[in-house]
Model the fold of this input.
Amino acid sequence: MMNDTYQSPLCSRYASPEMQHIFSNDKKFTTWRRLWIALAEAEKELGLPITDEQIAELKAHVDDINYDVAIKREKEVRHDVMSHVYAYGQQCPKAKGIIHLGATSCYVGDNTDIIIMTEGLRLIRKKLVSLIGELAKFAMEYKDLPTLAFTHFQPAQPTTVGKRASLWLYDLVLDLNELEFRLDNMRLLGCKGTTGTQASFMELFEGDHEKIRALDKKIAEKMGFAETQPVSGQTYSRKVDSFVLNTLSGIAQSAMKFSNDLRLLQHLKEVEEPFEKNQIGSSAMAYKRNPMRSERISSLARYVFIDALNPAVTASTQWFERTLDDSANKRISVPEAFLAVDAILNLYINVVDGLVVYPKVIEQHLRKELPFMATENIMMDAVKLGGDRQELHEHVRQHSMAAARRVKEEGLENDLVDRIAGDPIFGMTKEDILRILEPANFVGRSGKQVEEFVSETVQPILDKYADDLGVQVEINV
Done:
């Protein structure tokens, strides 16, 4: 590690080695060489005078990139693609003359970007599916545990811990649907030429339109894609980058919703993120257990939201068939969005895998508020015993206000149950009222909803991607 030079924290602290490799120089430049091989093979298959010996020479040097030659050449010519064409040619003297034949820089640059983003999305999908599996287990485990629900962070009709988790889970299912759509629509640029007209290939193939169409198709197949962009300028539409980063932003949004909820739950001491034996929560306050992983999710998510604006601006400011103001921005904004979302998913998986639930605290909070929420049920039972609904309502109102004052102004326990039990108009004992106040009576279909959601919506996903489940993640800090 070089301590005297800036390094992106996304690499040194957050993102996985797998995602870092996808956006590495080795991955980028070996993909350039694979694309040059695919181009040469396709051109040979369509009749151009390229030999098997030349292609074999190119294949022999796919991975042993002579970076020193390329770097030295780029300082002279100020062009990265031509520097690597030159360096490749130094290693492949017999094939030197046919490398990059008929292509423009975007042939390797743009096609590589599509290939790398596609691989990045597949890694994100793998982790997203694994996260869905872990969160589904948690939702099912706690599907029937009643807990106080909140609207506006004010106590509201109870739900269950598992039902709340299903809300986080459904956000991830929506993200997966979006990601799958994006993957299904990733297409190579293909060989489109300087302004997208394929004029150079018209020259090479003597005006044979069908051979030029076949060239695009062959290159796509060799690189593992079904299709190429149907039309383009010199570059593929920069809206593709915008769509991809919006998909990543959606995942970050879901993760931040979860992390914010968990931070609030940890404040309530109801649910906590994992806290390791020797972990320090605060440098000053030794007793603290700060939700640092959830806070980091929120922090990285904010970065992704803002970063996703970069390709939106780039797409809308590309002049005609292309400008070069996208290049420097793309080199930063696209990889860092992937690295950040990779880090977010690592954290999310780690947190869900170690969530700690405190049922007694949850029950205590619920029972403090439940008498207020149960007043309608109590009135209905009192009416069945012969009470007047309107008179009962007024008595409930007065008792509720008095109990609320006791809680808020005096800091005492909620005594609404005792007040109602002591009021003869209700004709109910405290035991009668406590039976009504059983928490499970107030959660509606929560448990059943979780079961139905997991079996009908989530399980098909887990079955489809069974091989991707159980991803192991490591949190560096």
Residues 282-288 have pLDDT under 50 and may be disordered. The longest strand covers residues 154-160.
